[in-house]
Amino acid sequence: MELFKHMPKRARRAVYSALGPILCLAVLSACSQGAVPAKKQSEPISRSEFLLNTFVTITLYDTENTSILDDCITICKDCEAIFSKTLETSELYRINHRTEQTLTVSDDMAALLARGLYYCERSDGAFDITIEPLSSLWDFTAENPELPDASEIAGLLPRVGYQNLKLEENTLTFLSPDTTIDLGAIAKGYIADKIKSYLKTKNVASAIINLGGNVLCVGTRPDGTPFHIGLQMPFAERNETIEVMGIDDLSVVSSGVYERHFIVDGVNYHHILDPSTGYPYDNGLISVTILSESSTDGDGLSTTCFSLGLEKGMELADSIDGVYACFIDQDYNIYYSEGAEDFILQE
Predict the structure, then answer these.
(1) Domains located in the chain, CATH noted
(2) Is the Cβ–Cβ distance between 111 and 64 less than 8 Å?
(3) What is the mean pLDDT of the chain?
(4) For the whole prediction, is pTM greater than 0.85?
(5) To bridge 156 with a disulfide, which of 70, 95, 133, 291 should be the other Cys (CB 3.0-4.6 Å)?
């Protein structure tokens, strides 16, 4: 396998949105400088709310119908009521606090579980949606985060294992009563895809869906040129970018060690947990970005490829048509999967 490697340029500072912790987003002029539009381009309309434990921003460039924005926010709220592991009225919460081991789940839950289990299998468990006992033990949002007790981690490890789930259409069976599910590593991508599908029914052809940095571009900018998406420089200010990509109707999702993390005794502990140890992965990577048509796949693959490490993660990305990956290691070297470097905009 050939790895395309170069030393990164220092970050380019520009007018990038800082709404998401993973990606900085810049939307430049709606029309290129040499173009003369047939009619004056209306201003984009946008809506932001704190949902899904992050800032959600929907921006539409080719319509002034604000009711579409309302509907997009409703989709987010409806999905949160399905996939949240902490909301006590959510479907996932009820699944995790079940009294029976065989359940009938909603179509959305079945679809996302199926995709999650696919990546569990493709990674041989390096990505595992039954990580919930461990992910709930680690509190990365506490005011003063602390390391979990090693004995607690060891005690929870046997509860993790995607093989304890059996999904047949809408029937979910738990083969162990101790198994619980966390869909946080893939749910935002699924929600973004649902919003895009809805926008298509409303004939929206130019939009950006930004779910806390999980960015899904609908079409192109109004003048037909790609959207400019800036990849955040790890551990830097949110408006500092390491690369800028030209994106046409694709999803851009990153997973990194700088998103939700804390430092104890000089060691960085981040939220991407190794199901085999219960501790954060320490494989030399600090970020993985996935470009793909499906944001569900991009979300799942960003975590999966990170979990697999550089070589196996690159191999997986290269094996899937229409998927492009960008890996950043702890020395800030950048590695691209086949075709990924073509999206980088030159200065």
Answers:
(1) 4-32+41-81+186-343 (3.10.520.10), 88-174 (1.10.3980.10)
(2) no
(3) 87
(4) yes
(5) 133
